[in-house]
Amino acid sequence: MNLSKPPYRGRLAPSPTGLLHLGHARTFWTAQQRAIASGGTLVLRNEDLDPSRSRPEFVSAMLEDLRWLGIHWQEGPGCGGPFAPYSQTERRPRYLAAFEQLRTAGLIYSCTCSRRDLTGALSAPHEIDDEPLYPGTCRSNSPLHPPPPPFCWRFRVPDGETISFTDGNLGLQQFVAGRDFGDFIVWQRDDLPAYQLAVTVDDTAMRITEVVRGADLLKSTARQLLLYRSLALVPPAFYHCQLMTDDSGRRLAKRHDALSLRALRAQGATPESLRQNWT
Ligand SMILES: [Zn+2]
Asked: Model's pTM, two decimal places?
């Protein structure tokens, strides 16, 4: 019996929906440092599932910015690898298979609620974890007899169950299903896989052993752990990086163009000068 740990495999998973900023840079640098420290492999995955926001010019910009920063990946778009393709838009059959598995197990249901139904007069949330708690309106819909479109598919969370995991950076994390997050979307109204399902499928298929990403995704990790369990998959380890904020304490986002790597580079920043502040 071989009890040795599998070789370390980490991943960088940027979305080509804007320019990479300083927060991404620090997270990706941390991911690379952890892969190097373990003598492991770093995979680059292009998370381009959102057709309205993903653009080819952002894909090339993100590859160039990462190279400029000194990040080296061993598998990914452009260099290939044993788990290709490395762009999510080319991986649809894999997501569909997992979706079918959840559907036939009766773990998901169709939901016809519009965004307006769910958020009322409030503006739409921009970040995944601002998602309002789904009230369960469509929970009794049969997974075998979907309504006429449009509808999405939601995962029925085990209300009241505490989902715990030990984060490699932030320690013990606990979220209560049905209170901290509700039934979440696994397949979207526009017939595309949702983020939670796609990354769970990809991290498994690409044999990722540790996921390094921003702390804004802690709650998503709890959701994904439910998907791992439901699909009888073994989850990777998780290491969430503290979020970077701007001078007024707001979290960095792609709208902060002034802090994009492009802008900083144009102002004379070097990769070394950026990294000086990351200790
Ligand atoms: Zn609904």
From this structure: 0.92
